[in-house]
Amino acid sequence: MCAETTADLATAVPFRGARRRRATSPLALGMALFLVVFYGVIFVIPFATSIWLSFQNWDFIVDPKFVGTRNFDHALRDPYFWQALKTTVVFSVVEIATGITIATLVAILLSRLWEHLQRSFLALIYLPVITPGIVSILLWRWLYQPNGGALNTFLHVFGIPEQPFLNSPGQALWCITAMVVWQFLGTGVIILLAGINDIPSHLFEAAMLDGASFGQQAWHLILALLRPVLYYQVIVSVIGTVQLFEQFYLMPGPGFSTRTLSVYTYALGFQTLNLGYGAAVSIIIFLMLLGATVVQLRYYRIGWRY
After folding, report:
1. What predicted TM-score, i.e. pTM, was given to this entire model?
2. How many CA atoms lie within 13 A of 277 on its CB side?
3. Which of 8, 118, 181, 211 lies 20 to 30 Å from 256, alpha-carbon distance?
4. Fold assignment, 79-299
5. Measured CA distances, 177 to 90, 224, 264, 304 (Å)
6. Domain residues of the chain, as ranges?
7. Is 1's pLDDT higher than 50?
8. What b/e readout covers 260-272, taking b as 16+ CB neighbours within 10 angstroms?
9. pLDDT for 170
C-alpha cells in the first residue's frame, strides 16, 4: 500500500508542474503585452506629454520654453475660460437631468412589455447611438434651419412663428442639448432596463398582492432598487458630457454661446497654436473630472441586496 502511494505521488508531482507550465499561455502573455503597449501609446504617452506641455510655452515654431505654473495662473484669470466652464456646467446639468429622467421613464414603461416587444423598441431607441455622429449632426442642422427647416415647418402648422434656433445665442445651447439627449438616450435606456429586469419578480408579485398600483411600484420599488444603476449612469454621464466636442464644433451658436471647455481647448491648441496653455486647460479639465468622479463615488458608495 505504501509503495503504491509513493508511486502515485511521484507521478503526480510532475503532472502538477506540467499543469503550471501549461497555465502560462504564450498567447495570453502576448495579448497582455499588446494591451499594455496599446494603453501606453494611446493614453500614458499623450497624457505625460500633456503634463509636460502644460509647463511650457510652445507654438510649434520656436523651441519650448519652461514657464512653470504661468499657464495655470493664466487659466484661473482668463474670463474666456470661466465662460467656457459655465457653459459646460450648465449644459452638463441640464443634459444629464433631462436624459436620465427620460431614460428612466422609458425603461420603466418598457419593463411592462413582453420581452420580444422590449427588444423591438430597444432597437429603435438605440438606433441613434450607432448612427455615425456626423450623420446625426447634419440631420439636426437641417432640422434647425431657420428658413424652411423641418422644425419651423412643423411649428408653422400650429401658427407658431419661425425660430432662429442655432442662430440665436439664447437657443443654440438648448438646441444642442436636445440633440445630445436624443443621440444618447438609447444607452441610458438599455442600462436602466437591465437594472429593472434584474430586480427579482417576487418583489413585484408581493407589491401587487399588497394592492400597489403601477405608479406606486415604480416610485417605491423600482426607483428605490435602481439607485446604484442611476448613480453609475450619473457618473458616466458627467464624464461623457464634459468631453463632447463634435456636436459643439459642427453646430456652433453665435459668439461664445456654445463654446465649451473641449472646444476652447481645441481652439487654444490647434487654432491659436498656444499648445502650453491648451495643455494646461486640458489638465484642469482632467482634474475637475477626477475630483467629481471621486466625490460621486464616495458619496454614492452603497451596497444593495435583493
Report:
1. 0.85
2. 20
3. 181
4. MetI-like fold (1.10.3720)
5. 10, 28, 18, 33
6. 79-299
7. no
8. bbbbbbbbbbeee
9. 93
